[in-house]
Design a protein that fits this description.
The chain has about 525 residues and is of the alpha/beta class. It is built from 16 helices and 16 strands. About 50% of the residues are buried.
Length: about 525
């Protein structure tokens, strides 16, 4: 319960904040780390928050940035007919971040903090969360990533960060005059400023500014990877957890082309670029939707979408290049992984794959460069590999989902390890989240691990049933404890899961999180060998 008699007041570098006390945890919501980005600040780098007199209330979330979901997810062509799968996905994602909807603002550069102590001299590990939703959607506010349980049970300081998204965060105006010469990756510049605010102020909230872990899922995992290669964020964190993410950026050329396509569509040229600062924000978002609406949702790369760009200055290094980028980030200890059925999300955008026959799966496998004979052999291998995992008779979609997941996530994880190993980087831990929801077409799909690693499994009401609730809570406890242990010492081993050994080329150690989490050697060995052409 909220105790009004224990409302904490904390002094930051800019002024005093009044938070809330809830059963052993102090909570501060909507804490601005930078100025409002509307009006003359729109499409420009973030500016530090200005000092204030007296106290500011920090007791409610700030609204999220103006946004849209990925056009493939919003496509009217995809959602003309509601299916069991779409209903299952909606149920599964209840109480997660709403993508492209909800209260929105340009005054969105705010963060939220949960801690057991304020100005008490204790130096708790700090965990900073960057939400998913690509670079175009999502929010720092959601039941799934509420920080109360981790702060309460693990005595860590949790911070969730909001930043600019979509056109407001990722339009590339560098070629449109001196005023906008630094107007690229604005959302990432926001995150770097948030990290510096945390470094400068978190001790007042009971945190250790020299023991900071950044973590994120999907697009948030991509943000974590980018921050590892950003000079403006260097030294503000020591550890990183990447959940279903990667170094997800576009080229300078692609970034400039998307910007030009959109500006041409709304009729703004270089001489009138300042007019952009006066457009109503909802109209800019609606113009993006209007531009993308007629396009084929089965091709996620067929849309005009503003994304982070590997520009060489703000985002300077790829931490997984096995060369200077890996060297630049080598001291950062990492956890990396995702759900075992991560890639099913892509299938939801292309529903025909759910009706595949085994012949269709074989044809799909050949699109990855395998011969028809190899494809038949691969299907047989996966049937054998999945016989103890799949409930009931193995279906073509089971094979297709596992195969595509291994070709992407499993392979990428190993490639990241190898890139870091080349430069003698800090330990790298690998995981798979295997707790399945109740629906056979979504299983342990992309995103379902988020509430568990916040030990918020109880909020994931679409993932467990009355029969599986106890198992889900056991898995949730293990996930949260492991993430907190890693944040505390750099080693995720804890009583709930036992010893978690770092990944290496000899054993390929992987922690499989489930009702009974366990460390395995060479998870899906045959899938790994197929992905690397060894079969």
């Amino acid at each position: 319960m909220i105790d009004k008699g224990k409302e904490p007041v904390v002094t930051t570098k800019a002024g005093k904040l009044r938070g809330t006390y809830i059963d052993g945890v102090y909570r501060f919501l909507g804490v601005h780390y930078a100025q409002d980005t509307s009006g003359e600040n729109r499409f420009l780098p973030p500016r530090p928050v200005e000092p204030w007199e007296g106290e500011k209330l920090a007791q409610k979330y700030e609204d999220k940035c103006w946004q849209h979901d990925h056009p493939s997810a919003e496509s009217p062509l995809l959602h003309r007919v509601e299916t069991d799968r779409s209903r299952h996905m909606q149920k599964l994602m209840e109480r997660s971040s709403e993508m492209g909807t909800g209260r929105q603002t340009e005054d969105c550069l705010a963060l939220n903090i949960w801690t057991q102590g304020v100005e008490d001299g204790k130096m708790r590990p700090v965990m900073v969360w960057f939400h998913g939703g690509g670079d175009f959607a999502g929010a720092a506010e959601a039941d799934w990533h509420d920080g109360y349980n981790l702060a309460k049970k693990q005595d860590v300081v949790i911070v969730t960060v909001g930043h600019r998204l979509a056109i407001f965060g990722y339009i590339d105006l560098r070629g449109y005059g001196e005023k906008y010469k630094n107007s690229v990756n604005l959302g990432h510049q926001d995150m770097a400023m948030a990290m510096h605010w945390i470094h400068d102020n978190i001790e007042a909230f009971g945190g250790d500014p020299e023991n900071v872990t950044i973590f994120g899922q999907s697009g948030g995992g991509g943000k974590v990877c980018a921050l590892m290669g950003m000079p403006s964020a260097k030294g503000t964190f020591q550890r990183a957890i990447v959940q279903s993410g990667g170094f997800l950026t576009v080229s300078n050329e692609r970034s400039a082309a998307v910007t030009k396509e959109f500006l041409d569509y709304i009729g703004i040229d270089k001489e009138h670029i300042d007019d952009l600062q006066h457009y109503p924000p909802d109209e800019l978002i609606n113009k993006m939707r209007e531009l993308n609406a007629p396009r084929d949702p089965s091709n996620m790369y067929n849309f005009c979408v503003f994304l982070a760009v590997w520009d060489g200055e703000i985002v300077k290094y790829n931490p997984f290049d096995g060369a200077e980028g890996s060297e630049y980030s080598k001291d950062i200890c990492m956890i990396n992984g995702g759900p075992k059925d991560d890639s099913l999300l892509n299938a939801l955008m292309n529903p025909k794959v759910f009706s595949y026959s085994f012949e269709d799966v074989a044809n799909a496998i050949t699109e990855f460069g395998y011969t028809p004979d190899q494809a038949e052999k691969i299907i047989d291998i996966y049937k054998d590999m999945l016989k103890d995992e799949v409930k009931g008779e193995i279906q073509p979609m089971d094979i297709y989902g596992a195969f595509t997941n291994d070709q992407a996530g499993l392979k990428d994880n190993i490639l990241r390890y190898r890139a870091r190993a080349k430069v003698g980087a800090a330990p790298f831990y690998n995981y798979v989240f295997a707790f399945e929801g109740p629906f056979s077409d979504t299983k342990a799909i992309h995103g379902v691990d988020v509430p568990f690693f916040f030990d918020n499994g109880k909020y994931a009401t679409g993932i467990w049933t009355a029969d599986t609730y106890v198992d889900a809570m056991k898995c949730s406890d293990a996930c949260g404890a492991a993430w907190a242990a890693f944040a505390r010492t750099g080693d995720p081993s804890c009583p709930q899961i036992g010893v978690w050994k770092p990944f290496d080329e000899e054993h390929y150690y992987t922690m499989v999180f489930n009702t009974d989490s366990k460390l395995v050697s060479d998870y899906r060995s045959s899938g790994r060998k197929i992905a690397f052409g060894e079969i």
